[in-house]
Amino acid sequence: MIQMFHVSKYYDKNFPALRDISLEINKGDFVFVMGPSGAGKSTLLKLIFCAERADEGQILIQGRNIARLSDSKIPYLRRNLGVVFQDYKLLQSRTIYENIAFSLKVCGVSNNEIKRRVYFVLKQVGLEHKSDSFPIRLSGGEQQRAAIARAIVNEPAILIADEPTGNLDYNMSVEIFEILKDINVRGTTVIVATHNREIVSKMQRRIISLDKGKIVSN
Amino acid sequence: MALYNIIHFLEEALNNIRRNTFVAAITVGTIGIAFLIFGIFLIIFSNLNDITSTWKEQIQVVSYLKDGLSNAEIISIEDKIKSEREINSVAFISKEKALSEFRKDLSSQTGLLEGLGENPLPAYFEIRLKKAYQDPKSILSLVDRLKKIKGIEEVQYGQEWVENLSSFLDFLMIAGMIVGGLISLAVILIVSNTVKLTVYARKEDIEIMKLIGATDWFVKAPFLIEGMAIGFLGSLMSVILLFGIYQIIVQNLPLNAGLLFGRFSIAFLSWPDIVVLLIAGVLLGLFGSFVSVGRFLKV
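YS: structure for the whole thing
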């Protein structure tokens, strides 16, 4: 599903953010990416959804080489990926419903279909009663659940979550990981960068550990 | 799909304005005031231009004839004058008519003329020029040619007046271009920067939309529509304000103020000027959005 071959990324010529990364993630996998701050976890994820481009190496997603993907094709790649961020990245001036619907509008889905799918995912993350609320009225956990709903409403093959529980307390974090686990059970490949050792060790999944831009264990 | 997108873009633009009513109102107000200043300049400048063109219309060339020409000779001179391309109209004033007009001008002091034996005034042609040739250069070249016509003794054209008028017009043109240029520049900067600020305030939204998988156009189009709408509303507001101010000034103008300028009314902007102003608002709004949204699309 995702393959990386000798991938490097430099923000600074002398200190690569990622060095010679090669890995493979299969369809339906649940993978944690771990490591100290500055290890390159976020950069690794950003390479997958093309928020950053690799300076060296090749990245294949569902068999397609994204190293050579032109800028104008990136949106179409992203529609097949769900991305969840630590700071939720919800549109503050729109309701939760509108935030999730936007993902579908981008793809040209009809209004009736949008309504059906948005309520379906809202139910899945337990937020059906908050559809008309604005993000600022929601707790951190609720906002992250809304962000997850937005990420999965397109039924993407891959869900990427960058520190999804970084701003949340333990109980809320457990809740979020439960949701991610559910999504994975339905067949979506899930990749999560996190610091949360406690939950990671409980969940017993594959871990890719990074340090100073290199894979130290896989 | 295309129609779906257009409806979506219009909806988004409208919703954006609704969601940010306060910012939109301030932007419209700022643009309105910028255009108001430009409109005031435009009214002053175009009225000055109208005044100077009525002055120009008063320019006339007078060709005095030698005494003792036959009717046939006078007709031939008239034909020659009429054959010049600058000529709008030619009127012949005979010696007798010249004298009677002179008497009329003197009116109370007609006694002065009693001692005259024969009529000392020459016959002449009063020549008016076409609009395109009412400038010193054309006048001088015409005068040169008229002087060469046999039977014409002297040609007068109010040399000093024409030269003064011409240097005043040159000054007006240059001053107008400098002031107009500066004001236009200020308007362009104010309008496009104000629109930019409204986009800057939503740069995170743009980033998020891109991360979700929106194409550049999907993000950009509503902003462009919004920029055009705000630019249009701003310039429309300026036209309305301008008309209000114009009405107040015109109604409070002393009746004889018009005499000062040789005319009795101040004209408002012409329809083409108004249309240009509105289009400028739309285009500047579009330009401001286009430049600033583009900056945040690289995500």
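YS: worth flagging: Chain B touches chain A through 21 residues (CB under 8 Å).
IM: good catch. Also The two ends of chain B are 25 Å apart (CA to CA).
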